[in-house]
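Many introductory courses stop at the sequence. We go one step further.
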Amino acid sequence: MNFGIIAAGEGSRLRQEGVELPKPLVHLDGKPMIERLTDIFVANGAESVSIIINEYMTQVAEFLDTLCCRCTVPIDVVVKTTPSSMHSFFEMSNLMRGRGRFILTTVDTVFRPADFSRYVEAFRQAPDTVDAMMAVTSFVDDEKPLYIDTAPGTMRITAFSDTPCGHFISGGIYGLSQPAIDVLDNCMTQGVSRMRNYQRALLEAGLNVQAFDLGKIVDVDHAGDIATAEAFLRS
């Protein structure tokens, strides 16, 4: 399994609230968030880890230079400033082509390692008819949540909605297969610019997109979220 981290955002809200470190280097559970994710991926059998950061993150780039030397699997770093997470994914997509299934997440998505391991194994064991498996949560901790509806009695996703529906919201963790990259290419050609619209496009393309309940997931968008995430991981 291959893994990717989108870490190209500016982290402007954290800076405005007094957090001086770039978001990927903010410590959680005793480690910078980007290192914590990489370690979790390696523990789950990562063959490679791809990371995108923006061109202004010189401190993060320097940290990744040292992390690449310490890590036991290849780390590919893309340095490019992008207007959205979907554009960041597109810039990384060439690193994912031809590598089978992969899991992509944003750097500020916080989850328990044991929950993530269950998710990775479920996606790894899913039949070939499953094109994507999205980690979802019933814990709403997002300013603009993306709601998810599923077919009755199953976890097959039938809709991504900006308004409440179903039992879950998107957790910002995307398990994808190679057909999903073709959909991404089409989205970019058509000017689609948000990850939530990309997820809708997966359904419109007829792909089998499954949900996996990861339990609680916390996003670190504000300074106060750091303490929330630390308490969550200690609980």
